[in-house]
Amino acid sequence: MLNVPSQAFPAPGSQQRVASQGRSKVPLKQGRSLMDWIRLTKSGKDLTGLKGRLIEVTEEELKTHNKKDDCWICIRGLVYNVSPYMEYHPGGEDELMRAAGADGTDLFNEVHRWVNYESMLKECLVGRMAVKPAVPKGMLPKSQVTDTLPREGPSSPSYDWFQTESSVTIAIYTKQKTISLDSVIVDLQGDSLRAETFIKDHSYLIHIGLSHEVQENFSVRVIENVGKVDIVLQKRENISWKCLGEPLEKHDSFIPKKDTGLSYRRCQLISKEDVTHDTRLFCLMLPPSTHLQVPIGHHVYLKLSVTGAEIVKPYTPVSASLLSGFREPVSSPNKYIYFLIKIYPDGLFTPELDRLQIGDCVSVSSPEGDFKLSKLQEVEDLFLLAAGTGFTPMVNVLNYALTCMPSLRKVKLIFFNKTEDDIIWRCQLEKLAFKDKRFDTEFILSAPSPEWNGKQGHVSPALLSEFLQRSLENSRVFLCICGPTPFTDEGIRLLHDLNFSNDEIHGFTA
Ligand code: FAD
Ligand code: NAP
């Protein structure tokens, strides 16, 4: 719900049309696109009915605003009058009404916790939820006394710090042995240090205003067998620190990842290169004082201001080329992030991205995603089914498979496109297949030119049966699939029909 109506459609036949996980996007009326909404919010019209006044809303009052033409919803403690937004919501009015007169935070987090609703709905802000008077603990019924009950999820990490003459080390004890360098994101801005460590589906935050100045460059190391993360800062002056600093917002908190917002940092556009007639390779540079590595198969959100409103869209980082191979992450990671992005001339976000000049900035979020590399363990045959830019998550999976999977016998990419001109990195794919005999690719076109003598059509039982051949009768197999949502849904359905189990399939979705 409250999904930014980036797709103020679907137009019939548009590949962007059906949302994932059973959520439908409802066709919007003429004049109800995101652009139309932005225009309305900038028109100066009173959208809350309160003439700009902000009020404190009690639970009782919230409950009374539960009708389409008088609908208030609370998200993360703030209350919005969403009635004016009803017709612009791509998930439809009914979806929005599920939280009418209530706290919609969980519903919102479930669907799109990354959506920048603060920016989208700022003209609909009614006020803040009133704080309930504290009830002395002894007076609560037993079932509500929760702080003595064991909390679900992993046990809380802790941290400590120590110093030498020239450095300060913050040690995070995660109590988990599955920690790696991509589990930690560190941003240092002036004296503010923000370090987020992902532990299973939880996030542990160190957020401190440091007591003394440090240099821009720092290092992060992970001691896997004890689950410890060290952030080593270099002092500007060789003096002894009496304390690490002051706690900032949510310092030392350990909460489910779904309840945290995304953190952003501004990255500079370093280069932009044509890959096909409509797809470009963008290279962004992370700030020098950021440590961020995107796990394989995960994506980030890019944020830009479009006519005054912040628009956010997901993109999947790729390696700079298919032929550069895979490198294990090291403690001073590559400062560059590459993206293959298709520009839709009438899209909302990509034309704006395409207009950026070298040196301009775009905000990049912390990574998201549910792909687990452990699924590839012991896999012998890997099948990658991609359509259009659905190729992007396959890039790093493919690099990883060919470099780091000793069990691997074969990788096959089945790549669906409209025409030959749409095939991303065709030449590199062919070179890679020539270089590594385990890899092979099949291009399937839905609207080929008369000269095309390869395969044509859409994802179908016949094509899949022809190409999904195991190298050995009982070889261990894994399949990844990504593309327009209806393509991915249909592909997964057909794979089930071919007796592949859920454990053998990963569908990339939002
Ligand atoms: P939109 O505004 O969303 O428009 C897209 C298309 O829909 C256009 O053809 C547009 O004409 C049409 N459309 C829009 N509004 C209407 C309307 N009212 N009526 C009819 N048609 C309409 N993309 C990449 O290129 N590279 C990636 O690495 C990548 N990774 C992704 C990762 C994830 C997890 C997900 C979910 C998506 C990813 N995408 C990627 C897609 C990306 O997020 C955007 O959806 C895409 O860039 C289009 O954005 P846009 O705002 O420019 O276009
Ligand atoms: P496209 O060029 O429009 O389509 C690529 C191929 O897929 C074409 O052959 C097309 O056939 C076919 N196709 C489209 N819809 C289909 C359907 N319903 N059933 C079967 N085949 C279908 O694709 P694109 O513009 O690059 O779009 C790529 C999509 O991938 C976007 O929706 C993007 O959001 C998504 N994506 C998702 C992730 C992720 O979730 N992690 C990552 C990257 C991209 P036709 O000629 O018939 O259209």
Give a quick summary of the entry.
The chain is an alpha+beta fold and 510 residues long. The protein has helices spanning 34-41, 59-64, 93-97, 105-112, 117-120, 350-354, 392-404, 426-435, 461-467, 485-497; strands at 55-57, 66-67, 70-75, 78-81, 102-103, 125-129, 158-163, 167-173, 184-189, 192-199, 202-210, 214-223, 228-235, 245-247, 253-256, 264-274, 279-285, 290-291, 300-306, 309-315, 317-318, 336-342, 361-365, 381-387, 410-417, 439-445, 455-456, 477-482, 505-507. A hairpin with a 3-residue loop joins β7 and β8.
Describe the structure.
This protein is of the alpha+beta class. The protein is 15% helix and 32% strand. The protein has 10 helices and 29 strands. Strands 20-19-23-16-17-22-21 form a 7-stranded antiparallel beta sheet. Strands 1, 2, 3, 4, 5 and 6 form a 6-stranded mixed beta sheet that branches. A hairpin with a 2-residue loop joins β9 (184-189) and β10 (192-199). The radius of gyration is 25 Å and the shape is globular. Residues 1-23 and 135-150 have low confidence and may be disordered. The protein binds flavin-adenine dinucleotide (FAD) and NADP nicotinamide-adenine-dinucleotide phosphate (NAP). The site of flavin-adenine dinucleotide has 26 residues, from β20 and β22.
